[in-house]
Amino acid sequence: MPERMISLERPAGQFNEAMLIQRVLAGEHELFYELIRPYERRVYAAAFAILRNQADAEDVAQEAVLKAFKHIRQFRADARFSTWLLQITVNEARMRRRKAHANIMEPIAGREDDEGNYTPRDFADWREIPSETLERHEVRQKLAEALAELGQIYREVFVLRDMQHLSIEETSKALGISSASVKTRLLRARLMLRDLLAPGLGGDWSSKLSFEKGTKPW
Amino acid sequence: MVVSCEEVWREVSNYLDGEVEPGLRGAIEEHVRGCKRCAAVVDGTRNVLELYGDERMLEVPLGFSQRLHQRLDENMPGTRRNFLGWMVAAAAACLVVGSIEVARSSAFRGPQLRSEQAHPGSGVPPGMMVVVSEDGKLFHAAGCPFIHEKTKLRTVTAAEASREGYTPCVRCMKKYLATA
Is B67 an 8 Å CB contact of chain A? Predict the structure, then answer.
């Protein structure tokens, strides 16, 4: 394993990336596959966060990647390629969503004012979570359902920041909103998910998972 | 500094992201030790981040990557591959992957990672002191809010932690990871 330090400002991968972009621009189109490979999952996940439908998300992900290829000359070297690719994806997904009038189905939470304070619900402690529980399909399913409950403005911030581990700044650029809005929505999204998932609340989610009454599912 | 429950709820996100200044951080931790409700909020929110932050939560449909590449092929000038081309490329890729696997299994085997989903921490300075817990899978910077089982902690160098199969916490070690 190579034991060397990587510059904090500019991860090593970005040097290769800049070189790849230059070569794609110079006509080596096949290298574009190499360029997008690390971000394929991320592009799909961003599209899915907005569209909530596998087929649409896949189609939009393909469209976005294709668009990035066609417009790669417009990419500015001072930006990150991953952020630029995500911006295209987010725009494509939002356009698709508008066309489909899917916002009719938007959960009520999506229309809430995100400036107000949110009071977390008061219930039993939820301390330990062995990540092994994620091996269980029904647990992942339940988490996906809870995420789908969030309004779009919260879900897209949460997916980019907490599932794809983008920084606040990258999330703000990808979504075209201020860093302050990212932080406010993130706080709300995290607390709402905690409220939706913490066990013991009405026994709803623990009973569906056939856990014994009174025990924590984790 | 003393903080109220409302302030804890307002700052819980920044606290878990390690983005509060030390005075406020200490005040939040002090408050949480004596407030059951806020402890539940902090623990629950941390659990949300751990669960959703796991790679297993980001599932892409089977064959997504192949279909994406196919779509690109169809639209990329001068690089459209025919079926035979694909088969040759696929066979070559299988051979390469196969030989790499054989070479890896017979000649060199790196540390067995404690988490199958994680990536080894090659970007972290090897001499950096980090914290591991006996039953955990990750190594952390001291004071990271994502350290579990605080009673069974050891401090070792990042290189030692890596050799033992620990991988870097994506939160407190994020700046060292080249994951864009």
Answer: yes
